[in-house]
Design a protein that fits this description.
about 900 residues; alpha+beta; Isoleucyl-tRNA Synthetase, domain 2
Length: about 900
């Protein structure tokens, strides 16, 4: 469709034209061809029996409904597929065309923070197409479903819900009470996610469904923690971490949003009564006894109480005379050293910077080089600590900022305020400004494991596709730091570490408390029964358990049959945004804990973005539920869903306005097959994906074309056009095979779209109409179109499983071959098996004929030739003699081209 989604007039005009075309074709089918089809099937007694499907049934012995309906086609097949066990690897060993090879994948476990959005649908569409293709090839396929507990994200969502519905804060509940609320949320959202996956046609083995906090996963997490600790790769230390004061927890880098500010910007922050200004550079004077002052610029004046030095570049001549001198702190008057360090950029600002090791990663490194002790002046809750003095202690840090600015003015040490472009770190879960705090946390040493991960890609043992991601991979691992894996949350895997109360800062690790007590006794030399152990209240980073997913889902650390048969995985397919935080950590921990790569190939697909170019995110309210595209939805319902969520008022207003602009008339019903086909047509490679509903509607019309094409039989003997369409079919099979082998699904969708729409419907069916109209009761078995339908539907099945199953079940069985019970386990057509149909020279001749036909049609339009006016009339600016002469001349030219 060429019209945009929000151009409703264009859309409805186009749809009216398409409907008229369909009505003409359907009239032809119902009056001429359907009787032939029905009679042929009855004479051959090849009507398939009724297929019973759980609570519903599809009677495939009845004629096709007159028009394609996604709701009708997609209503009942999935429960039957599951019930028959087609998605289980054990079933595939029974297939006549079984290859004996295995193909295994795991779904990137969606977070139970809410329902799936269109970005998840892209992942499912690509993965399921690959899985179904391998299954139809005869491979033993395992595709494991699962969901992620998403510790910090889920806890934040539940906290918002509790406040919205009951005006209750987490800390007003006990840990057990709060966890009960989270489990209720998980059960509700987890079930909803499973229903969405089924609606998308995902051919997952549901008997192996897992959750990252189920007993098996918990055992794997504990085992991994213990093994890493014993290997010296996991330790506890006090160092700077990303800290969300609103959540009172450390957070990972992926949960830090870098928000660029062009200059002065007002932001509303959690816990702060008034908007806070950012993007400003404050100039502060540090007095020097007997010398001119040193002016320092800062965007964070609230951290001034934590300053322990001022640094300049050793070659900056402006400050050479102050080397080894001391300055006065502008707030306390205490003496601070002026230090020299080559990391200081002399051409930025005044060339002098304040050093706050407790609240800046760069300052922490600088301070460590010069032996400076850090001063922590911001507490876990975002208030100022006692080190700031009574006048600031307990104040919100941004309220304290105002008091500090006033104090500087009163003391005559304020030197100006100016706009300053900057990047502000924001917690994506809470919307608060991220602080860097010194905290005692658990860390994983990543250098050694990271080197192995980088080497795996460099050596070719691990293949990243598209290959341009290799540069990011190597850069990240060459600069990787240790990974903070502890979180100050209640929802998640409790860390299996225990504090020995009788000893100073003595921690032991064990699978159970009894094991930890034995370790403590050996470490302290005291009887274990005399020691008091206190388990760490913190939980592990969600990415820790997610990094174990490829093998924990197969039963690790137990030596299970699934682990032996399907690990390492054949392929890891996911979004490019997860390359480093998830894929990288799976590779590190997989190699460390299992001794081998968890997979040898990684396929990274594009990111789905909204009209503003933003990533689809529940926290932004810009997500689209795939079910709304599949079934259709009114604008009012879309708006109600937003209001029922946990968006803050500002984001809610933005999201609601975007919906009104993008979907003024709601979203029409498109169906699962159309959605999957459209998503796969964009391909797994390349840049961002800006999806429009009009594209999906176009795929729905494509489904309608296929639906209306199938009841047409073509009888022997073969005409040249019959040989041509079979050659096109063989070429399509070869292109589909190439697309699946290279995992470029856009090649597959393009080939199938061209065959069904342009070769079969637009050319072949139009060509055989006159033959059928002259002899509507010719005897003989269906041949050519049966082959087109059988092969074409099997080619289509991995992408449009519902439509393919519905139509394929209605085909008469091929003589001499026992039919497969479902198209999902029928053999996928191989290029080699159809090579005898391929006639490139015949296709070239038909291409020339098609060019001639197109030129003739253009002439008819130009000269207004119709059935009512076969000779044409004098048109504007062209008298009849000229018209006839022009027609004659061009006709001779076309005749020559057609004969050639």
């Amino acid at each position: 469709s060429k019209c945009s989604q929000n151009n409703s007039c264009c859309y409805f005009k186009e749809r009216e034209t398409q409907n008229k075309t369909m009505e003409r074709l359907e009239g032809f089918l119902s009056h001429v061809l359907l009787p032939i089809w029905s009679a042929g099937m009855q004479r051959g007694n090849k009507v398939r029996q009724l297929v019973e499907l759980s609570s519903a049934s599809t009677d495939v012995s009845q004629p096709l409904p007159p028009a394609y309906s996604p709701r009708y086609v997609e209503a009942a097949w999935y429960p039957w597929w599951v019930r028959e066990g087609f998605f289980k690897p054990e079933y595939q060993t029974q297939l006549p065309h079984a290859t004996g090879e295995t193909f295994s994948m795991c779904i990137p476990p969606p977070n139970v923070t809410g329902s799936l959005h269109i970005g998840h649908a892209l992942t499912v569409a690509i993965q399921d197409a690959l899985v179904r293709w391998h299954r139809m090839r005869g491979d033993q396929v395992l595709w494991v479903p699962g969901s992620d507990h998403a510790g910090i994200a889920t806890q934040a969502v539940v906290e918002k819900q509790l406040w919205k519905e009951r005006r209750v804060r987490r800390h007003e509940l006990s840990r057990e009470e709060f966890l009960r609320e989270v489990w209720k949320w998980k059960d509700e959202k987890g079930g909803e996610i499973c229903e969405q996956l089924r609606a998308l046609g995902a051919s997952l083995d549901w008997d192996r469904e897992c959750f990252t906090m189920d007993p098996g996963s918990s055992a794997a997490v504990t085992e991994a923690f213990v093994r890493l600790h014993k290997a010296g790769l996991l330790y506890r230390n006090r160092q700077l971490v990303n800290w969300s004061c609103a959540l009172r927890s450390a957070i990972s880098d992926i949960e830090v949003e870098s928000r660029p500010l062009p200059g002065r910007t007002e932001l509303r922050l959690p816990g702060c009564p008034t908007p806070v200004s950012f993007g400003l550079l404050v100039s502060v004077a540090f007095p020097v006894d007997g010398e001119p002052e040193v002016v320092v610029g800062t965007t964070r004046p609230e951290t001034l109480p934590g300053d322990v030095a001022v640094a300049v570049h050793p070659d900056d001549s402006r400050y050479t005379h102050l080397h080894r001198r001391q300055l006065r702190h502008p707030l306390t008057g205490q003496l601070l050293p002026l230090i020299t360090d080559s990391a200081v950029q002399p051409h930025v600002g005044t060339g002098a910077v304040k050093v706050t090791p407790a609240h800046s990663p760069a300052d922490a490194e600088l301070g460590a080089r010069h032996g400076l002790s850090p001063l922590s002046v911001i507490a876990e809750d975002g208030t100022m600590t006692s080190l700031c003095g009574d006048w600031l202690q307990g104040l919100h840090r941004f309220v304290a900022r105002g008091k500090i600015m006033s104090a500087l003015r009163e003391r005559g040490l304020f030197r100006g305020l100016q706009d300053h472009p900057m990047v502000l770190p924001i917690c994506s879960r809470s919307g608060d400004v991220v602080e860097y705090l010194l905290k005692s946390q658990w860390f994983v040493r990543c250098r050694e494991m990271g080197d192995r991960a980088a080497q795996a890609v460099e050596s070719g043992a691990l293949e990243l596709s598209p290959s341009f991601h290799q540069k990011n991979w190597q850069h990240w691992f060459s600069h990787i730091g240790d990974w903070c894996v502890s979180r100050q949350l209640w929802w998640g895997h409790r860390i299996p570490a225990y504090l020995v109360v009788e000893e100073h800062d003595c921690w032991v690790v064990g699978r159970t408390e009894a094991e930890a007590r034995e370790v403590a006794a050996e470490l302290t030399g005291r009887p274990g029964a005399e020691l008091t152990l206190a388990r760490d209240p913190d939980v592990l980073d969600t990415w820790f358990s997610s990094a174990l997913f490829p093998f924990s889902t197969l039963g690790w650390p137990q030596e299970t049959q699934d682990l032996a048969r399907f690990y390492p995985l054949s392929l890891l397919e996911t979004g490019s945004d997860l390359l480093l935080f998830w894929v990288g950590r799976m590779v590190m921990l997989g190699m460390q804990l299992t001794g081998q790569l968890p997979f040898s190939k990684v396929l990274l697909h594009s990111m789905v973005r909204d009209r503003q170019g933003r990533k689809m995110s529940k926290s932004l309210g810009n997500v689209l539920d795939p079910r709304d595209i599949i079934s259709g939805v009114e604008l009012q319902v879309l708006q109600e869903k937003l209001e029922d969520g946990n968006l803050d008022p500002a984001e809610l207003a933005i999201a609601a306005a975007a919906q009104r602009k993008d979907f003024p008339h709601g979203i029409p019903e498109c169906g699962t097959d159309a959605l999957r086909f459209t998503l796969c047509s964009h391909g797994a490679l390349g840049g961002d994906l800006h999806l429009s509903v009009s594209e999906i509607l176009s795929s729905r019309h494509f489904c309608n074309k296929i639906w209306n094409a199938l009841p047409v039989p073509v009888l022997s003997p073969l005409l040249p056009v019959d040989a041509w369409i079979l050659s096109c079919l063989a070429r399509t099979a070869r292109e589909c095979e190439r697309g699946f082998l290279t995992r470029e699904l856009s090649l597959v969708t393009h080939a199938l779209h061209h065959f069904w729409l342009h070769n079969l419907c637009d050319v072949y069916l139009e060509a055989v109409k006159p033959v059928l109209l002259r002899s509507p009761r010719l005897p003989g078995p269906p041949q050519v179109l049966f082959s087109c339908a059988d092969v074409g539907l099997r080619l289509l099945a991995p992408l449009m499983p519902f439509l393919a199953e519905e139509l394929w079940q209605r085909l008469p069985p091929r003589p001499g071959a026992p039919p497969a019970p479902s198209i999902s386990v029928a053999p996928y057509p191989s290029a080699r098996s159809l090579e005898h149909w391929h006639q490139p020279q015949l296709e070239q001749r038909f291409s020339r004929v098609q060019e001639a036909v197109q030129a003739l049609r253009a002439l008819r339009a130009t000269y207004q030739l119709t059935k009512a006016r076969p000779r044409g009339e004098a048109g504007p600016g062209l008298p009849s003699p000229c018209r006839k002469k022009g027609l004659a001349g061009r006709g001779e030219s076309l005749e020559g081209r057609a004969q050639s």
